[in-house]
Amino acid sequence: MDWGSIIRVWLPLLAGLWCLQYVYRFGPGPHDWLRWIGLGLGLVGLAGLIVARYTLGRSFSISPRARELVTRGIYSRIRNPIYLSGLVVAAGIVLMVRKPALWFVLLPIAILQIIRARKEARVLENAFGDSYREYRKHTWF
Fold first, then answer.
1. What single DSSP character describes residue 20?
2. Alpha carbons 105 and 103: distance in angstroms, whole number
3. Mean pLDDT throughout 77-103?
4. Segment (H or E) for 52
5. In the 8-state DSSP scheme, what is residue 138?
């Protein structure tokens, strides 16, 4: 294990786990079965984020760049697992804290993630052409 893996994968995992447990334990809202479901969603989303980030390795960037067409691991099924997993984490947190107004925050976040995914798709299609178009046929979102 190198320092890059520690910084890219293990530190975000620990930070995410700490945040989820904090919201679960100390966040507003009742401690019932819905809170458990929210925690489960948060953990599933966090796992998706970490797996996707690890799979991307050095191909990860904040703004769309075409360094490499990653089609292995979670990317063999989902084109944008980081965007999707982030929404799952957010939904889990909203479910845990039970603030109905926060559900309305998820809608613009989802729309922004779709816009980001489309921009990224244009960059990848311009860079990788037919390879990317073929990849899109066999993956979701």
1. H
2. 5
3. 94
4. helix 33-56
5. T
Bridge partners, residue 78, by sequence? 140
Contact between 67 and 61 under an 8 Å Cβ cutoff? The reply is yes
Average pLDDT of the chain is 91
Taking the whole predicted model, whether its pTM rises above 0.85 is answered as yes
Counting other chains too, the contacts that 10-14 makes at CB distance below 8 Å and 24 or more residues apart are: 12/49, 12/50, 12/53, 13/46, 13/50
More confident residue, 56 or 133: 133
Domain count, the chain: 1
Query: pLDDT tens-digit profile of 59-69?
Result: 777 777 788 99
Domain containing 28 equals 3-137
Domain CATH code at residue 58: 1.20.120.1630
Q: Distance (Å, rounded) from C-alpha 141 to C-alpha 133?
A: 13
